[in-house]
Design goal:
457 residues; alpha+beta; Glucose Oxidase, domain 1; 3 domains; eight-stranded mixed sheet; 12 helices; 15 strands; 21% strand
Length: 457
């Protein structure tokens, strides 16, 4: 019996030990679970915080900065251009100074040479302040700075702003620090901006739009034989009945007073004989070319039908005809010009690149009145034309030459000089070309100077 009691007590002790061991393991497991849960609870805010920091840092990438920089730079150049009409940029004839001044306007909207606030909000400092305020609201600190502003022109129509951006983002909760520095380059096109030099000198608004073609003329016919002619005339072509290539004249309504501004183009000699004098000029192509002189008293070019006509002449909407003499039909070259490229440039007020002209920087600067000073050595000069009833007579029509009172000569076919009578009219404003622009604009054969001077009045 004693043995049985001892056995029972021993079994009970072992059971108790086993129970205690199970309980101990359960306690350990529970502790481990709660410890893991506590760690997870503590790490979730950390992970969320890291994601917030990473998201905030995307606002400081070069791509995001480029967008803000373009807005600030565009507004700075535009506002400075407007202000420079009456208050030219005080550069001291130095590109370093213009970099400093434009850079300051890009940064905080203020002109350092005058103290004028040009852009109150859309500048880089406003962008910086906005991001720094947002960082503070999320319990982070942010410091942004821009330095080493260099402003230049990459071509005649573009201002380029270059600088270095530095930033440091710090989060005290996670002890995370993100720093970076990179170069920012922003191109601002000046196309469509007002020309401050033009407005300052003429009190007229002229927006800068580049001419997409070359400024010049095209000689589409040049004959020394198999042709005759007298005088010169510019006008739209009126195509009379010519074989099967030209439209028919339907009735007498086709012969209006407007035809005195046009050139009759035909191979029908009867049209020349009967109606030629109702037009401002004539181009005749046919076997009776030598007889044209006897039936008309308007400027004409008559071409033998042995001479093939070019596709350019056949399709030209308007031309300038010019013979070698106003009286002798057999003297000199007989020329037909397409002058539409130079006419469009002159009459529409476009701009074109010229190495001798003032650049955009020159046009906004205080050195713009001294044409011997250039802020740029590159070939970024641009020029336009000055035309209107208010212009001073005798001056060249290229804008900066007009301001310098450089003389110019009238030009056949261009503004105010479409034909002899118009060219002699002292009241009508005229396009005039200086000697330095005759060759670049391809006007050597039609400028009213030298042998042509007497032919323009």
């Amino acid at each position: 019996m004693k043995k049985t009691g001892m056995t029972r007590r021993k079994k009970g002790f072992i059971f108790t030990l086993l129970a205690l061991l199970v309980i101990a393991f359960m306690i350990i497991e529970i502790n481990i679970y709660f410890s893991a849960y506590q760690v997870r609870q503590e790490s979730e805010p950390f992970k969320v915080r890291i994601r917030i920091i990473e998201e905030f840092a995307t606002q400081l990438t070069p791509q995001s900065t480029a967008q803000a920089s373009y807005v600030a730079s565009y507004n700075a150049i535009y506002a400075l251009t407007q202000d420079a009409v009456r208050n030219p940029v005080q550069t001291g004839n130095s590109t370093e100074n213009i970099s400093r001044i434009i850079g300051q306007v890009v940064w905080d909207g203020t002109r350092p040479d005058t103290g004028t606030v040009l852009v109150a909000d859309a500048n880089m400092q406003a962008w910086k302040n906005g991001l720094e305020t947002l960082a503070n609201k999320t319990s982070m600190s942010l410091d942004i700075s821009c330095s080493n502003f260099v402003v230049n022109q990459s071509d005649p129509w573009t201002v380029q702003i270059n600088y270095t951006l530095n930033y440091t983002l710090w989060d005290d909760f996670t002890k995370t620090k993100i720093s970076d520095a990179y170069d920012v380059s922003t191109n601002v096109p000046i196309i469509g901006f007002e020309d401050p030099l033009f407005k300052n000198k003429t009190n007229q608004v002229r927006n800068i739009f580049p001419y997409t073609q070359s400024v010049g003329t095209d000689s589409i016919l040049n004959l020394t034989s198999n042709a005759n002619g007298k005088g010169w005339f510019y006008g739209d072509i009126f195509k009379g009945r010519m074989l099967s290539n030209y439209g028919d004249i339907n009735d007498t309504n086709d012969f209006s007073v407007e035809n005195k501004k046009r050139i009759l183009f035909t191979d029908n000699f009867d049209l020349v004989n009967d109606y030629g004098n109702m037009f401002g000029g004539i181009i005749y192509h046919g076997s009776r070319f030598l007889s044209v002189d006897s039936v008309t008293n308007v400027p004409f070019i008559a071409i033998s039908d042995a001479v093939p006509l070019s596709a350019e002449l056949m399709s030209a909407p308007a031309v300038l005809i010019k013979s070698g003499s106003d009286s002798d039909p057999l003297i000199g070259n007989f020329m037909i010009y397409n002058i539409e490229r130079v006419r469009n440039f002159v009459t529409c007020g476009y701009y074109t690149n010229n190495t001798a002209a003032p650049s955009f920087f020159d046009r906004i600067s205080d050195g713009r009145n001294n044409q011997t000073i250039r802020l740029l050595n590159e070939s970024f000069g641009i020029e336009t034309t000055v035309l209107g009833n208010w212009v001073q007579p005798g001056r060249a029509s290229i804008d900066y030459e007009y301001y310098q009172i450089i003389p110019g000569n009238k030009t056949m076919g261009l503004t105010g000089c479409k034909y002899n009578g118009m060219c002699r009219d002292a009241i009508l404003p005229k396009f005039r070309i200086s000697s330095t622009h005759i060759s670049p604009y391809g006007l050597g054969g039609i400028v009213c100077s030298g042998a042509n001077a007497v032919r323009c009045g």
